[in-house]
Amino acid sequence: MADKPQSQTPVIQSAQLGVTAEAGHREEAYRNSFGGRLFLVVDSVPEMQRAMGMTLSSFGAEKVEYANRASDALSKMGRYDFDVILCDYDLGNGYDGLYLFEEVKERNLIKQSCVFMIVTGERRSQRVISAAELAPDDYLLKPFSGEMLSQRLSKAMRKRTAFRPIDEAILRNEYLAAIEICNRKIAERGEFTLDFMKIKGSLSLRIGDFDTARSLYMEVLRLKDVPWAKLGLAKALTGLKSHDEARMLFEEVLADNDRIMEAYDWLARLHRDGGDLVRAQALLQKATDLSPVVIRRQKQLAEVAFMNNDLPVAEFACSETLEIAKYTWHRSPNHYAMLARVQLAQGETGNASRTLGRLRRDFRYNQAGEWMADVIDSQVQVHSGNGVRAEQLLKDAETRFEVLVDGLDAEAQMEFARACYAQHKTQLGDRVMRDLVRNHHDDESMLARLGTLFDEVGRGDAGRQLIAENVQGVVDMNNLAVKDAQSGAYEAAIERFARALTEMPSNIQIMLNLVNATMAYVHRNGWHESYMRRASELLMKVREVAPTNNKFQKQMQSWRLLTEKLGKPHWGL
List-wise, which residues carry 4-aspartylphosphate (predicted)? Predict the structure, then answer.
């Protein structure tokens, strides 16, 4: 393959890796196991790549890709469907294999059946490697023999092959089906029972079924005291709003092993939601010191430090976020906006102007990026005393906002609202915030963030009233439509939900309620082509933006049963 080293020197490289790739390891059994698999070797040292390639080839591996850096590995994972990833622990520049594994899992870049194995010469790294909630499948200490590698891989691959049906269900976004597969495998009490319990717990958390997750993790802990089950139970308790119990469990997890990074994130979130921003910042600071290249964590640290008015820490975390995200899919105009906002808060107008220049350069010809640049520029002009120019920039941004709004995420819209409030465009800011509330009326985390923004711009009381009134307005409208549906007036319910969706085009609950009312109508009255076409389009939209929504998962099952019952299997999603 293109990235595979062209020259290989078996004797030298095998000796360097400590591999004894003897002829006996070329047996047909190995070739049958490894011949059709796609491998990725991640190592910053070309000689190590070649040595590993030779070892893999000695027991039948034919398809091997290579990556020198984490960014290369992430790029290749985005293009290829790997079966096995062998990753060196030390990738250079402060980036190690565990950080890569964390990002890979966060971005869902590998399938459940892919084997991810860490290769290391550091015996002391075992504790670190074992700390991940979804730990790597194995770690291999250098030096090792080809036979040792093949045996460890065979076992890991056999286990991962058992997960393939789950992969296929997840690829179809059928999380309930994947959980049902786990249930069957757990009931069999086979070799990998604990692994299927781990997957079931993770999937249950993902779709917000916290009761199932809690029961599962408690059952695991009765069998064996494992960190991932204790961490999972703490997450489930957080979802169930048992915050004190969750906090104690997260603290226990970290007391047992201070390298379980997710525990810092969740514990910081609990402290942040509880108003203890100092403690939240301290936890995130420690976590970023231990694992500095995780974008999400740096961004959270920047937000909390800004709320704490610790502007130097906020600026550093913003800069780190921007630098780490620069060459990844995480790259966003929002990162530039946040850095510029922190710089302006410190009176660093020149630095904010330079950040603005980077945004204009990096997002040239990108409509959302250019729009965000004007929003930031309007703020820079305010701080520079150019009120007329600031007003013109904001006015132009308002005009384009109406066109771009459906493609802008909530964070970008909130940045626009900040600029509006800062320039005394209160009605415009309130309109943007009202639409955000109405489109996310049942998202407690988003509503909390909107409340924080109101506090930030000095509109705390008015903002809380705006949030409460608009949440209640959506709930009341929804209840009227549900009452129509319950009384059998399905067409009235459909019409009411459709009108609501026109006003709140990004509201997931309204979309799903419209789909539900449509299916109820079709159950009673028979197939309705235009109704069902609209419903299928809405389900596809939800699958794109919120595939793990619990209600969506149940509706997908109902949709499939309905379309099959009515002889319309081609309408199945």
Answer: 88
